[in-house]
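ugh ok so i messed up the first submission bc i forgot one of the chains. this is the corrected input, ALL of the components this time, i swear. 1034 residues overall. if the numbers dont match what u have on ur side tell me asap before i send this to the collaborators (the ones from the other lab, u know who)
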Amino acid sequence: MNNKLVKNALGRLVPTEVNGKKAVPFKGVGKYKPDYRKYAPPVATMADFPSGDKRVKDLKTALLKAGIKDGMTISTHHHFRDGDLVAVQIFRIAAELGIKDLVWFPSASFPCQAEMIDFMENGTIHHIEGSLNGPLGRYCSEGKMKGMGVLRSHGGRFQAVQDGEVVIDIAVIAAPTADPFGNANGVEGPSACGLLGFALADSQYAHKVIVVTDNLVDFPCIPWQIQGNYVDYVVEMDKIGEPEKIVSGTTKITKSPDRLLIAEMTAQLCLEAGLIRDGFSFQAGAGGTSLAITYYFEQMMREKSIKARFARGGSNQYLVKMLEEGLVDYILDGQTFDLEGVRSMRDNPRHRDTSPFTSYNYHGKGNFAQFVDIVILGATEVDLDFNANVNTHSDGYLLHGIGGWQNCLFSKTVILPIPLFRDRIPVIRDAVTTITGPGELIDVIVTERGIAINPKRKDLLKALKNTKLPLKTIQELKDEAEKICGIPEKPKLGEEIVAVIKWVDGTIIDAVRRVIV
Amino acid sequence: MNNKLVKNALGRLVPTEVNGKKAVPFKGVGKYKPDYRKYAPPVATMADFPSGDKRVKDLKTALLKAGIKDGMTISTHHHFRDGDLVAVQIFRIAAELGIKDLVWFPSASFPCQAEMIDFMENGTIHHIEGSLNGPLGRYCSEGKMKGMGVLRSHGGRFQAVQDGEVVIDIAVIAAPTADPFGNANGVEGPSACGLLGFALADSQYAHKVIVVTDNLVDFPCIPWQIQGNYVDYVVEMDKIGEPEKIVSGTTKITKSPDRLLIAEMTAQLCLEAGLIRDGFSFQAGAGGTSLAITYYFEQMMREKSIKARFARGGSNQYLVKMLEEGLVDYILDGQTFDLEGVRSMRDNPRHRDTSPFTSYNYHGKGNFAQFVDIVILGATEVDLDFNANVNTHSDGYLLHGIGGWQNCLFSKTVILPIPLFRDRIPVIRDAVTTITGPGELIDVIVTERGIAINPKRKDLLKALKNTKLPLKTIQELKDEAEKICGIPEKPKLGEEIVAVIKWVDGTIIDAVRRVIV
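and heres the new structure output, hopefully the right one now
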């Protein structure tokens, strides 16, 4: 990791090489233009699949047939979230086979996969390219991972696969339903988790693709969210995941008075700014505050007979109810966050599954995020230029992935409803510990003690000229927090870079440094 | 066209160069193994699509923005069949702009596109790579086209695009419904033609993609059979096609006693051979004989309480009825052949659209054709080795495309129900004028005067040991035809090669020679 550092367009020092590959520093939003071709996977032939029946006896056999060996990159998806039962099995088998230095390339990681630490300790896994949540993040933060962590947004992950930044040797796709040809979906079967969109790029670009299912049906498996013509092997096992654990965060609307206030002000701001109007669209997420915002939107829409054209999921019971009542025409969903979402996606043609190719990939000819009027996101920290952090805490620990957060910044109005401080640590800072997204794309910060609108959004400021909402400058919000909590301490960080944060175009927006324990 | 000729694995003399590109002779079924990568189109960036609204004022503007210039390859799809109104407009604009030597790469051509002859005459179009039906075939057959015709199956066309044999500069996709982002489908709107599967590879691999629609809807256009993230420009026009003309051949069951006899014997053979059994699958096509076979299948299934797992479309009213009555679980459809097919695909989740990637591409990890138990196909000629011709007539004229015919040969039992002679010209010959498909993949020839089973299919011969059906050798059938019609004359052909027939793997299975007029 003796690596030349350069200052990127946000003034952050970032490495020019990551895990032995050349890296491009962030150049500014929309400034980096790709001048190369997509990744070209090998051409297959039906002659190698004479019967079309791709079943093999178990996952170990499939991995061996796929040619698993030292140094390979193995991908998994996270539609089961904390209920995934397949990813760790891959590395248990690899460890048993004595294979070393694998790269695990999940679409996201969860605490249920903490066992991966053992595989990093014993050399089976060299490093993880993907979100590093909870225990895995802590492990990386303390400098224990051999390689550098590489964090990407959902769209950035597809960009990296499409562009050949990451070549997947073997993709393992846990599929709630599949047929012997490898057609697969997430909406049917006892382990139905909704969709398999996060595995789509993997299926199309990986050199070998293994579908693992606990619900094998006769050809054709319909719908085929994953197409069998990209699949090499099909494995049956008893249970691939616990779908009841797909529930993200909370399923209940917050009861905290502060958060309810933030939610109400957020909704009120959207209404007063004219953003809630017939045919509008929104993406609110699934935390307690987000659910409260969805609830307030719903009340306003009902009261004013306003219909939304679409809502972006992560879907949940509240969105499903709005769809079924006709308050929204469509849910465009990347991930079901509860079993009501799964049911709705299975049965309602107006609840459509999407993949990051359609929704989020910056290296496509646009994406769906551009069409979303209001997006509600979180942040651990925000600086005076509205740059925001979702990856690290103020103590420097890398504890969260990016998810679709960066990709959603391209929506029309980006609002961060956040508390002014957490555990007496102010959220608005002179400088954030890590920049996950540039402030020029962040429009509004709503806190329980006031709302700051990015001065770039003159239109919003004008529309809210006569509001009774407590508009303040972001500096005022910061001062207020510091008056209450004091000036926050800086985290104790070493020089060593343990992870990088990729921007949506594959450039490096920031580097994460080792936490000194 | 001074071109070295070599003998391929079927003993046919084929060129080693086609339109300036190296060509590989057919090596035998499953013998040619690709050792290269897929075609890699340029990486796009959302930075070039800042609003996501891709509308431009007209087709000319779109073509100019797409950079249309001499020598480019322009693709269209044929889901409107003989009702297409878009393809000729492209070349009218190109002619008006003085652009020369374009390659037209349709997924199929139809008589409504005869105006393309004018564009070949005036140099706008250099040659056509695609099916050459009717007037276009006659033009090519008489040696008038500047370049060599290249005929591919539907699967072969996708293979060629995926493998980079054909690089599409501009794809123009006529879409019955689309949104400003370019999401598009064929099931909604006044010009609904069913699906857009034949344009899928074009959308994904072409350098520039233009969607043309007469039914623009607000984002999101759902379903999105074509994904807007692959689309550069969206054009609105008054009318893109006449969907009532998608009707293929006849919509009525044949009344010819000979053809009814052929159909009945075909169905009876399938029943006696045990091919019609619970969970079976079939693809019958849409001609008068095919519809009669479907009708007989239906009677047998009803009588014996047999359900098919799926039927492959070209869908039509008869298949839709079987689906709705529960006689088949699913229709997997590549092309709707009537408006009942369109309605069913729009409304019935058990009627699924497919693309040649899933259904037919030989350079995938298998395809759906492998799962079809019985496929019913036609032929203009068959030889004593069961090699068959669907492209040329016995007078040498190239009058038909391949369609999915070659791809369907990979189904489990391939049956050709054909008359023993047409216009007193015998169909079974010592040698066919053109080999479109190798005899080793063709199992049964059913004629009004007897049935020949390929001796390779010992299992079928055994299953039919005690049948009352008139089993004969193919030599006996040929002799019988010649007894009635005499020995047919050879066509009058020059040496010059006017077109080549590609096999499903991109190799050349035969060459078509100029007809001496």
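quick check: Residues 257-491 of chain B form a domain with the Glutaconate Coenzyme A-transferase fold (CATH 3.40.1080.10). that seems consistent at least. The two ends of chain B are 20 Å apart (CA to CA).
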